[in-house]
């Protein structure tokens, strides 16, 4: 009993940003970089269902896909930021209004 395509819910605005923060945080773990407050929270959610090795693997795949130009999957606020630069709660608060505009 699947949903008809027209009945499927559209993901909430900002969902791509939060998934991106989680995967980007995993990439920063894999690179040995210190996580920000938000990245630590998001990666801790991933660690509930994935081993540390799997978290690092998610990070490696994310990093490789970003290098191949898959940045269109995530909002510009995240995809245009270098991996060396963390993404914190303060960044999220400042970027959410722009993410809302990108989705329109």
Produce the secondary structure layout.
Blueprint: H1 15-30, H2 37-49, H3 52-67, H4 76-79, H5 89-102
Describe this structure as you would to a colleague.
With 104 residues, this protein is mostly helical. The protein has one domain. 61% of the residues lie in helices and 0% in strands. The chain has helices at residues 15-30, 37-49, 52-67, 76-79, 89-102. α1 (15-30) packs across α3 (52-67). The model has no long low-confidence stretch (mean pLDDT 85).
Summarize the structure.
The protein contains 5 helices and no strands. The chain is mostly helical.
Number of strands: 0
Residue-averaged pLDDT: 85
Helical fraction equals 55-70%
* Overall number of structural domains: 1
**Secondary structure tally, helices:** 5
Compute the gyration radius: what is it?
A: 14 Å
Tell me the strand percentage band.
Answer: under 5%
> How would a crystallographer describe the biggest sheet?
none
Q: In terms of quaternary structure, what is this?
A: single chain
Question: How far is the first residue's CA from the last residue's CA?
Answer: 31 Å
Low-pLDDT parts are none
Helix/strand structural class: mainly alpha
Order of helices and strands: HHHHH
Shape designation: globular
